[in-house]
Amino acid sequence: MAREMIETVTGPVAAGDLGVTLSHEHVLVGSPGVHATYPELMDWEGIEAGGIEALREARAEGVSSIMDATPFELGRDVRMLRRVSHSSGVNIIASTGTYVDIPRLIWHTHPDRMAAVYVREITDGIEETGIRAGMIKVANNDHALSDAEQMVLRAAARASNQTGIPITTHTQPLNKVGEPQWRIFAEEGVDPARVCIGHSSDAVDFNYLAGLAKEGVFLGMDEMPGHQLNAPWRDKADMIKRLLDAGFERSLMLSHDWSIKKHPDDSWGATEEIHHQVNPDGYAWISRRLLPHLRGMGVSEAALTLMTVDNPRRFLAGE
Ligand SMILES: [Zn+2]
């Protein structure tokens, strides 16, 4: 049964009011405990102020909600997200789950025990803030999954089955990691409509993406324009068009995977300066550049609305 209300960092919002929703973004990307232990490593106030400014800009371009794919292991700070949401006017959906560096403590934990943690963050809230996770994030880079990675995927699947909350993934698409992720979710009996295989915009094999879409999962076309200078974003737009022409308009969601970079020697492979050269518009790039480009390629307004409004709502609400 579809959920009428979606949990955001400022409380429940009617699914029908989410509007244009970006499916995979971040404000802060860090590591757990860094804020408390190595506070001088990052400009925390700058990240918060930058997030507010960039989201206000996106709001002026029609973006009203973002899914924040930042679980605990990426340094999640839901109190900061709540302030950013209040000040920017953009709804933010927070994540439970984990990222690629699974905390050592849980490597040998039973999936049911981890699922219970994820369920608690979905039903009771995160860190006694009362802020509830609206989605579950998992992340894998290799086609062969380690035991700990399989445990986390099963935990995410069981938490999703118990709550109806969807799962969003990070993949290395060139390794076709969506395939083993979906295989485990399917073994666990997850509804494919509760799954988004992320970073699918970086895949170059149409058959890989079409195969996943035929299973019924969503594809996150969420590395737009990407992180590299001279990123071939027009090729990614061509892949979106090809998938639309093949009838997968109800399978695609759009996003940037943007974050606010405010530390001097960026560990994610690009300085803040390069980050802004690649994407000068932040969370507004899709509105300003991709949607006009897709219109120019003949993509219909109906398809654009599906990818930016209806599919994210269907994914979050379980329609
Ligand atoms: Zn991300």
Annotation keywords:
TIM Barrel; three-stranded parallel sheet; binds zinc ion
Helices and strands, with pairings:
Layout: E1 5-8, E2 11-14, E3 20-25, H1 34-37, H2 44-60, E4 63-68, H3 78-88, E5 91-93, E6 95-97, H4 111-123, E7 135-139, H5 147-163, E8 167-170, H6 178-187, E9 195-197, H7 206-215, E10 218-221, H8 233-245, E11 252-254, H9 272-278, H10 285-296, H11 301-317
Parallel strand pairs: 3-4, 4-5, 6-7, 7-8, 8-9, 9-10, 10-11
Antiparallel strand pairs: 1-2
The structure holds zinc ion.
3D architecture notes:
The protein has a single domain, classed as Metal-dependent hydrolases (TIM Barrel), CATH 3.20.20. The radius of gyration is 18 Å and the shape is globular. The protein starts with a strand and ends with a helix. It has 319 residues and is an alpha/beta fold. A 6-stranded parallel beta sheet has the order 6-7-8-9-10-11. The longest helix is centred in the first third of the chain and has 17 residues, at 44-60. 41% of the residues lie in helices and 14% in strands. The chain has helices at 34-37, 44-60, 78-88, 111-123, 147-163, 178-187, 206-215, 233-245, 272-278, 285-296, 301-317, and strands at 5-8, 11-14, 20-25, 63-68, 91-93, 95-97, 135-139, 167-170, 195-197, 218-221, 252-254. The chain binds zinc ion.
CATH C-level name: Alpha Beta
What is the ordering of alpha helices and beta strands? EEEHHEHEEHEHEHEHEHEHHH
Query: Which molecules are bound besides the chains?
Result: zinc ion
The end-to-end span amounts to 7 Å
Please work out how many helical segments DSSP would assign: 11
By helix and strand content, what is the structural category? alpha/beta
CATH architecture: Alpha-Beta Barrel
Strand order of the largest sheet: 6-7-8-9-10-11
Largest sheet: 6 strands, parallel
Mean pLDDT: 95
Ranges where pLDDT stays below 50 over 5 or more residues in a row are none
In CATH, the topology is named: TIM Barrel
Radius of gyration: 18 Å
- Beta strand %: 5-15%
Query: What is the overall shape?
Result: globular
Helix content: 40-55%
How many structural domains can be distinguished in the coordinates?
Answer: 1
Number of strands: 11
